[in-house]
Amino acid sequence: MLNYIFKRLILGIISLLALVVIVWFLIYARKEYPINITQFENEDLFNQKWKEYGFDNPALERFWDYVKGIFTKFNFGPIYTKSDADSIPELFFKPLRDTAIITSTSFIISAILGITLGYIAGYNSGKFLDNLISFIVVMFMAIPGFVLCSIILILGPHIGLQTSFLESSIFGLNNYLKSIIAPILVLTITSLSGFTYYTRNEIKSILNSDYILNARSKGLTSWIIFKRYVVRNSAIPLIGLLIPGFIVLLGSSLIIEIFFNVPGTSSVIVAALRENETNVIMFNVLFFGFIATITRIIVDVMYVVVDPRIRYSTASANNLKLINRLKTFWLDPKTREELEKQQKINIKEGKDE
Question: Is the pTM of this model over 0.85?
Answer without folding.
Answer: no
